[in-house]
Amino acid sequence: MGGVFLSLQGFWFVVIGVLWAGYLVLEGFDFGVGMLMRFVGRDDAERKAVIGTIEPVWDGNEVWLIVAGGATFAAFPDWYATLFSGYYIVFFLILIALIFRGVAIEYRAKRSEQRWRSAWELAIVLGSAVPAFLWGLTFANIIHGVPIDSHGEFSGGLLDLFGGYAILGGLASLALFAFHGAVFLALRTTGEVRRRAKAFAIRLVVPAAALVLAIFVWSAADSGHTDGKWIAAAGLATVAAVLLTLSLGLIVRDRDGAAFAATALAICSSVAAFFVGLYPNVLVSSSKAGSSLTVFSTSSSHHTLALMAIVALIFTPIVLVYQTWTYWVFRARLRGDSLPGEKLLGGSGSRPTS
Amino acid sequence: MSALAVTTAELSRWQFAITIIYHFLFVPVTIGMGLFVAGLQTAWYRTKQERYQRLTVFFGKILLINIALGVVTGIVQEFQFGMNWATYSRYVGDVFGAPLAIEGLVAFFLESVFIGVWIFGAGRLSPRVHLATIWAVAIGSIMSAYVILAANSWMQHPVGYRKVNGRAEMTSLWAIMTQGNLLEAFAHVMSAAVVTAAALVLAVSAYHLLKKNEVELFAHAAQISLVVLLIGGISVATWGHFQGQLVSREQPMKMAAAEALFKTEKPASLSLFALTPFEKYPSKTSFNITVPHVLSFLTDWHWNSKVEGIDYWQSQYQKEYGAGNYKPIVAVNYWSFRLMIAIGTLFVGWASLGLWLVRRRKLEQSRRFLRLSIPLLALPFLANTFGWLLREMGRQPWVVQGLLKTSDAFSHAVSVQAVAFTLAGFILVYTLLAAIEAWLVVYVVKGGPAPPAREGEQPKKIELGY
């Protein structure tokens, strides 16, 4: 474990883990809100409120993905190349889903005809559910292993990416993001919409926690490792499960902010468990041992890693400051039964607690 | 191999070309209109004149419809390097990955986070902070263009690297971020973005002037757009010229092909209209109208200098890199180059004509000028595309000039069938979205700006929303 912090490769591995955690926490609730929008919002005004919770922020949230991809390209070109070319069709489907979801959020509001709105709402639901599932599938495949040949190239077919473990991973992330989104909606809305979001959260917590636990149990049974790394990963996975349970208690007690913090931290713990369990590999090979890609076999030169580390250390805090500020600007809760276009401002500048 | 066989590399090229040309329809509008709207909002902030508030909101809506597609098609480009060009990514990642990562972290975050605040934040922020958010968006998009062009310029003219273990490794980020190829391309592309946005504003204003709708407001917008169009057009041409001179030193084969100059000439004549035998890699022109001395002069300001032709560089490159074809497709280079220049020149003339009409106070009545200004909007988009065709196809067969060939750069793990599937998928989805986007823009343009505040009513804010 100590080696992680002694090498630049280890540093960049951590940076990429942080970027993915940021992406999955932020776009995770965008996905959840998108998946649930037709169910939590029953009429047009309510759906407007539901979408309104992510409208100002979804675009900035998605940049975490762009930066995670760019950072992988810069720091670990061979990881980037093998992953993106090997998971070709999966990534294509993610791209198409993100394209439709992105334009749908904006275009839905442009016309008021029922058919127009329903069509774009369907695009939002599918455009959120498909990547929510496929990201889990992708991460499951990375750690569980897919066929990689002696040149470090993916050598399997499309079906190799849809094994039982990978599908379980996809279902786990789907349920987790749906739950995370429901908790976010409860935090950001009021009235009937909030009541329904909470009901969804309560219903979703059991499948989310069960699936997350199942994927970690399978991983543990699968690996047969008992070294410190796996104990740490198992510990982080347990923390994630505990946080999910905790968030249920908090949402029942109307502590929406704390409940959201708990689900966000549960996602961070899950990502941390994944990256700790993966290290020093970056892509596990399911073919004969020895051809897994590692941080050392795929990295850029010392010069590039060091230079980019300085860039990352300067600019990441700046981004965090202004992105956090935007969440403060849009902290007021929304409700579905106010006049069209009218949004409630929080009382005396602070967030109402119920 | 049958005549119909296609390779992963060929289909991947088609896919990259189609998706990047499509993406670049939106990029110049985002950059140019971003600046234009930020300028309008600044004018409103300074003067508090209601016309600037109305123009900001109206053109802001058009900007937003455009940004939606620009953003989502941009992600595709970053993913495609790894998806379709894995060998390229392995070879260049150490150098090329850095600007991509910097683009996301430094520029795209700025643009994407603040666009949300600008759209929805007017009611929650002071006018001053709200104004700052649109400038953050505009500056973010400009920085984004700079860094992406840095990556592209490195493919045209690799600097700041060394070859180690069969790949390129970075030795100087500074050299990559400040080379002449980049600076001149950036100036050229920025000017082209401004021209594209100005042509859009002119076309929209012309539509409403023809309908006699909000004449005062749109006459004002048209005047601004004409001034910007003239200055931007002259800037595009100036930087285009210097870029041409630089490229004739850094990538002489590209410029020789762009001029259809097969044999070395001293002094060299400029070709005005040339035809070649109908084949992919012809070896001579079959018809050519030329002006003596002019190509020499344009290349290095000397009337009698020597300009080496395609044949010379072909044999040079064979000596340097081994047997093979080093010629790009001459017809594509030659006509892209000429059509781009023709469109640029036309717009300088068009803007001058428009400003002359403004001076004679006849713009609003000049129906023919206004009517023609609407279809002319297609031309800057074509010129932008021609410029990129010249820059990218003129570099062939290289993907990184002198280092890596395009035919070696593809993904070995991706089958032809897979690329055929995704190519069909992108064409289908992109065509559908282009139709919807165009229809929405027309809908917003025809709707016109919101009515002015009535007597005694509070002047409105810059409220946008989706």
How would you characterize this protein structure?
- Chain A contains twelve helices and four strands.
- Chain A is an all-alpha fold.
- In chain A, helix 1 packs antiparallel against helix 3 (58-75).
- Chain A has helices at 8-40, 44-52, 58-75, 77-86, 88-107, 114-144, 164-188, 192-223, 228-252, 256-278, 295-298, 302-329, and strands spanning 189-190, 281-283, 293-294, 334-335.
- Chain A has one domain (9-349).
- Chain A has a two-stranded parallel sheet with strand order 1-4. A two-stranded antiparallel ribbon of chain A has the order 2-3.
- In chain A, 73% of the residues lie in helices and 3% in strands.
- Chain A starts with 7 loop residues before the first helix and ends in a 19-residue tail after the last strand.
- Chain B is globular.
- Chain B has a two-stranded antiparallel sheet. Chain B has a two-stranded antiparallel ribbon with strand order 3-4.
- By secondary structure, chain B is mostly helical.
- The longest helix of chain B has 40 residues, at 8-47.
- Chain B has one domain (8-258, 325-447).
- The mean pLDDT of chain B is 94.
- Chain B has 14 helices and six strands.
- At the A-B interface, helix 3, helix 4, helix 5 and helix 12 of A face helix 2, helix 3, strand 2 and helix 14 of B.
